[in-house]
């Protein structure tokens, strides 16, 4: 196998026994500052919390759910380090649950309830169904990097730089926009395309699932901005703040490979009281299997109600 991909190094955590039992720390330090004054990507906290929780369950268990809240931004006083305190809330033959608190500079910045299921336990008769994968034109390999860069630049500019994509040299995922639907009604708008990670050096299901959670948050709330061009204003000049509040993931396929192409669809269903609700689904492009569903509540603040 080759060297670790950017995803693997980003989501990795290591034990911190000097801080207590079941405490982990990010293996790779976060940058102390990001473009536009942003703090750490929410996807990093989500994925590292899952990695920490996974280290406390038996190898046969895989994550199937993560329900989390972002409490506070990470300050420079944390020096790029976050400690993940894992509480072994419940352990059973079929299911296990972990409560994870992410602490940076003695401040709790993120909390998650992470649930696992044993892959070897039979489930018996079960309902089996899922929403079918949307039909997108073309092959993701045939969509150029330049088209993706132009879309990402427009996406970022429209938010008034409140949304920042990964820098090209450290970008952990390949995104390929395709088949967007933009309507006057924001709830009918939809961002669609393809995504995959750089090739991973491992086939470990736990690493691929944590990597998928990393991708789940990259600019997800941006769909609410893109779907409301009249309110955010040209170049996003009417946007003053965006921030993730709650982030919930359901993993549907423990055999998913995050470095294989997936179809991604993002929509927004509601906005009021300074908050928006956004939704995301991902399918394995080759098999058509639904692999992940994400719901996120986020803060979007405007300067003026109308332009």
Structural description of this entry:
This protein has helices spanning 6-11, 42-54, 145-158, 205-215, 222-226, 229-232; strands at 13-15, 23-26, 61-70, 83-91, 95-104, 107-118, 173-177, 191-197, 239-251, 262-272, 275-284, 290-302. The protein has 307 residues and is an alpha+beta fold. The protein has a single domain, classed as Acyl-CoA thioesterase, double hotdog domain (Porin). The relative contact order is 0.16. Residues 33-38 have low confidence and may be disordered.
Looking at CATH, the homologous superfamily is Acyl-CoA thioesterase, double hotdog domain
Number of domains: 1
Mean pLDDT: 89
- Beta-strand share of residues: 25-35%
DSSP, total strands: 12
So what's the overall shape?
Answer: globular
Element pattern in H and E: HEEHEEEEHEEHHHEEEE
Rg measurement, Å = 19 Å
Per DSSP, the total helix count is: 6
- Which stretches of 5+ consecutive residues score pLDDT under 50? 33-38
Structural class by secondary-structure content: alpha+beta
Largest sheet: 12 strands, antiparallel
- Alpha-carbon distance between the termini? 54 Å
> What would CATH call the architecture?
Beta Barrel
The third-level CATH topology is Porin
What oligomeric assembly is this protein in?
Answer: single chain
Query: Percentage of helical residues?
Result: 10-25%
| Spatial ordering of strands, largest sheet | 1-2-4-5-6-3-9-12-11-10-8-7
What is the class in the CATH system?
Mainly Beta
């Amino acid at each position: 196998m080759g060297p670790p991909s950017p995803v693997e190094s980003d989501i990795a955590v290591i034990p911190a026994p000097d801080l207590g039992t079941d405490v982990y720390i990010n293996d790779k330090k976060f940058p102390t500052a990001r473009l536009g004054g942003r703090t750490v990507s929410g996807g990093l906290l989500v994925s590292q919390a899952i990695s920490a929780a996974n280290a406390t369950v038996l190898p046969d268990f895989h994550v199937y759910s993560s329900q989390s809240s972002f409490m506070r931004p990470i300050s420079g006083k944390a020096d790029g380090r976050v400690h993940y305190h894992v509480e072994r809330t419940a352990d059973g033959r079929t299911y296990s649950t972990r409560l994870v608190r992410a602490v940076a500079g003695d401040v709790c910045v993120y909390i998650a309830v992470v649930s696992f299921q044993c892959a070897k336990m039979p489930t018996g008769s079960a309902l089996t169904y899922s929403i079918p994968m949307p039909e997108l034109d073309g092959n993701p390999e045939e969509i150029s990097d330049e088209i993706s860069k132009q879309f990402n630049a427009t996406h970022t500019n429209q938010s008034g730089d409140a949304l920042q994509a990964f820098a090209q040299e450290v970008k952990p995922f390949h995104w390929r926009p395709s088949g967007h639907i933009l309507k006057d009604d924001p709830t009918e708008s939809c961002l669609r395309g393809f995504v995959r990670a750089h090739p991973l050096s491992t086939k470990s299901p736990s690493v691929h699932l944590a990597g998928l959670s990393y991708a789940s948050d990259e600019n997800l709330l941006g769909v609410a901005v893109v779907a409301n061009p009249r309110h955010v204003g040209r170049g996003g000049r009417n946007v003053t703040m965006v921030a993730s509040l709650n982030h919930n993931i359901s993993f549907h396929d423990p055999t998913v490979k995050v470095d294989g192409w997936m179809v991604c669809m993002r929509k927004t269903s509601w906005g009021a009281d300074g908050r928006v609700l956004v939704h995301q689904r991902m399918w394995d492009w080759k098999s058509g299997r639904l692999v992940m569903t994400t719901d996120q509540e986020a803060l979007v603040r405007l300067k003026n109600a109308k332009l």
